[in-house]
Write a structure and sequence with these properties.
CATH class of the domain at 72-145 and 269-282 in chain A: Mainly Alpha
Largest sheet of chain A: 2 strands, antiparallel
Distance between the termini of chain B: 85 Å
Strand content of chain B: 15-25%
Distance between the termini of chain A: 84 Å
CATH architecture of the domain at 72-145 and 269-282 in chain A: Orthogonal Bundle
Number of helices of chain A: 11
Oligomer: heterodimer
Strand content of chain A: under 5%
Order of helices and strands of chain A: EEEHHHHHHHHHHH
Helix content of chain B: 40-55%
Structural class of chain A: mainly alpha
Strand order of the largest sheet of chain A: 1-2
Shape of chain A: elongated
Largest sheet of chain B: 6 strands, antiparallel
Structural class of chain B: alpha+beta
Number of strands of chain A: 3
Number of helices of chain B: 16
Amino acid sequence: MPTKIEKDIVTGRDTTGHEWDGLKELNTPLPKWWVYVLYATIVWAAVWFVLYPSVPGITGYFPGVLGYSQRTAVMDDVRAVAAQRAVTMDRIKALSFADIRKDPQLMAAAGTAGRIAFANNCQPCHGAGGGGQTGYPALAAGAWIWGGSLNEIYQTITYGIRSGDAKAREGQMPRFGVDGILKPAEVQQVADYVMTLYGGQPGKDVSAGKKLFADNCALCHGEAGQGDREKGAPRLASHVHLNGGDRATVVAQITSPRMGVMPAWHTRLDEATIKSLAIYVHSLGGGE
Amino acid sequence: MSRISKADRQLQLQREEAGDHLYANRVRVYPKSVHGPVRRFKWAVLIVCLGIYYLLPWLRWHRGINQPDQAVLLSLWHERFYFFNLEFWPQDIYYLTGLLIMGAVTLFLVTSLIGRVWCGYTCPQTVWTDLFMWIERLIEGDRNERMKRDAEKPTFDTVWRKASKHAIWLGIAFWTGGAWIMYYVDAPTVTVEFWTGTASKEVYFFTFLFTATTYLLAGWAREQVCTFMCPWPRFQSAMLDEQSVTVTYQGWRGEPRLRGRRHEGDSGGDCIDCGACVTACPTGIDIRDGIQLECINCGLCIDACNHVMERTGRPAWLITWDTLADQAAKAEGRQTTLHLLRPRTLIYISALLVAVVVMTAALLMRSSVGLSVLHDRAPLFVRLPDGNLRNGYTVKIVNKGPNIALFELRTDGVNAASLAEADEGLGPASRLGLLVKGDSVGTFRITVAGAPDRLVDGSQGIDFNLRNTDTGEQTVYHSLFMGPR
């Protein structure tokens, strides 16, 4: 508390009356309007307290006279945006891919919608940007198993692969090793030959494997290992491999193949979103 | 000898009695009009400053079709700043930084040389306050008349004068707020839109906001802004030293001040304690107390004092522009010289020179072509069926020219690189031709496929070379090509 107001000799001013270890403070009175501005802000705060949500209670809070809620406000915004978007999404749903591609604005909208839907639904398996991972195809590489045109991608997304849906893409590779179609030694020979298709240098004679391949594998994978999209048989003469490019993987795949499953997305996503997804996946770099 | 005025002391006594000690009533300042060279110079600066401010938005500048023809336009809506021949894009924002640095250092330099002339002559607060005071004086009369009006019961004459004063103030404030908006949107267009009610909400909001601030700050707050609100007076003392030229009362000549008629043999100084310097002061201080926070260095007290000196037959310039060092020397009867060049000012000058040279060079070497390349975050690379690697990039090409231009993009650093742009169906090819509209940024999704042979820890350098095929201007962006570790 102020003790004694003194007059400073040098400046002729009063001190505030505060003293700290002999140090005294000159009083430079603030104009009153500054204080009134402070009072005005206090009044402002009081009004704010009444108008807007302010006082917390045990089970709830005082919602304010205006009934304002940020949650309501953001939901209104979300609804407004959805309504705005519906116009574009309806057009994407109605038009063919050829017509959508003619409209840069629709393409941009579909690209964005597809990117978000991809991140929410596809990315866990196919990786960000469709980079793929072991057992899950890379979508950006152009190494399509079932086809890379917009319509083919659309079909794959809609009905899935081995998904149990009536229109699902179906393809089965026999269990050559487990079911005894090929003897273990023959499996090794076929694997030796397949490694040459993968780009490896044959260290030994692979003619036996080549013959076995022609008899057992070429029906689906093609004479030159070019694959068959009708049957979903992957191209083997390639540097892109679904399950891995090493010999052990090839042996394992011939012995007891991994058969991946992709869900039928029409049960979860609407038509326009699936079309947008197809357009996005097509744009990743592998589209045909 | 006490240096506080009688009024001040009385006020202090009142405060102590009222127990209201830490807050004070605002002491109204009624500056008296003065005439003289300083006042004339101040009017000239005021006319130049206000002239530039109000008229500059109306200056037209031809830039070509579909380009704004306003000489100075800060188009926030279209993200372009125009200054005569110069056009700035958002990414040129560092020029603003440079401008602010130059402005700050110039302010420091000028202040250390000749005191707070910015405050006294060119600060908008000073300029508009001066203008508003001039109008007040025209309508309500000079100092004494205004004090009388405020002291007595309001008469009809006082009321209509005050009312018309505020009306004119508001008019000027409105004109000021409106002119501010014109720096951001085309002046003739926004004027028409404003009066036909078709301007945007923002235009109306900011016009009225700046109308209100001008009216309040120049009409009502005045010296309160300088004394209590502005940070500059708080630290300007760091720029001043004993060699700075400031408005100075020559105490050695004036003291001891003696009121009234002098007689032969009186020991009094030249100051006759008439108070002309105090009544002329727009911030209401006594310059004879020496340099102080409230002094804005406007020098109106010089004109006021010179007038009195002339009438009483004394040499003029009792209050003058001088340095503390010179005053100390003169008090002892010595002569000194001005030290304009001293370490402080030399440092400010060299800092200013560096800033000016750097900014000018940057401005002159500014390219009208810009390129930025952003590598995809995922996937980092894609292995292709033929064994090559492919990387994806988002390439942004800035075309600052007025016309559509064809840019040629190629890469260096990756073997057998082939570029492709899927959206437009360009490539694959070793170089791509990309069209970018004038005065805009073109964004392209570019994929580069190739056989990198210098991968270290999964990456190697790749240079994107861009050439404007019309002007031949080139630019390079260094990026990375990623592959397996």
